[in-house]
Design brief:
Elements lengths: L54 H7 L9 E9 L3 E7 L3 E16 L2 E3 L4 E22 L2 E22 L9 E9 L3 E14 L8 E13 L4 E9 L3 E9 L5 E10 L7 E11 L1 H10 L9 E2 L5 E11 L2 E8 L6 E2 L11 E12 L2 E10 L6 E7 L1
Amino acid sequence: MVTRALAALFLALTAAPALAQSTDPAFAGQWTWSPETLAAEATGLGGAFVTTVRGAEALYWSPAGMTFDSGIDVRTFMGARPGLGVVYHGERLHLGVGVRRTFSRTQHGRGFDASSQTFESGQFAVMVDQAAVGAAVQSGRLRLGAMLAAGPMKTSGVWSRVAASPTPGAAATEVRYDYTGADEWLVGGATSALVELLGVHPMARSQARIGVAVRWPSMLRTPRYRRSRLLLPAFQAEGPDLQRFRLPQMISVGGEARLSVLSMMRSVRISIGADWTDYAGVLETARANGLEPGTSLAFDEDRAWIFGGGLEAVHTLGRLRVGVRERADHRLVTGPGPVGPKNPRLTFGASRDAVIAGKRLQLDIDSTSSFDDLVLSTRILW
């Protein structure tokens, strides 16, 4: 695994010194405007989550996936986005509740930038902790689900940006930013639908399904955070301002197939997916955050779809996954410029399933090749 309100922050380092007119340089650098699919199994399968998530993971990403399995499903999440979720699997109605960190991002100043003759240091952190409730039903080959989540957004950090003067011999200018939360909540929701093409029963030997999921991370009013600004050596202070923060709407489609192809393995799972992000909404919120008059704003790339997929081998000793996912890294710029390289990320994961005292225990670990998106989870089903 992206925001709508912090888009203008890219302007500080994405082009020439004129981009220093950005209202908030804390998110300068490469911000990935693509869905951050940090979910057990799905991350290792190239982020193709629509049909692959189960239980409490499905509650947050693709609620229709809660209809798989039976009994009571408890899952804990560890790492950068900890949490706990419980799903009750009824005969027809499946109910889920959970508490989880649904978004977290920390941006660090990347030091000296020769192209703009600026030096940036500091850090800025955003975290969103939400409680969620959802429901799902199955009717024949169709599975439907919906979820609603709400919780506080927290921000913190300090930032310093020093720019060389265009006049030889003149003093450099330093701008300092201070960030705090505004005690505001972020309300979001998701809904999904899955269609079984083969093997309606979740334990069928051969299975195939397709699905679509729609996520609204920011519903109702747009949450905000506070930013204060101090210009040195002139000692001109501004703020605190309320800067908008809005995660964009996303539409995802995907499919998977489980096939028995080799005698040494129980089955092989193939998964694919594509994610669309509302980049027009990102631009709208960035402009509303207060650009300098007359400043135009656009993305360095206008392709809205990102693709990914993977392969999982199922053996009696465990399950191994490997996949690949495109990297979006859309940057906001005020003029034409070259598009930087966007090399795809490799993904991988492993799971171990066991039955102890009649209860199923599942351990999962998934990550991308950068190792900054590590997902750890445990699941108990009885």
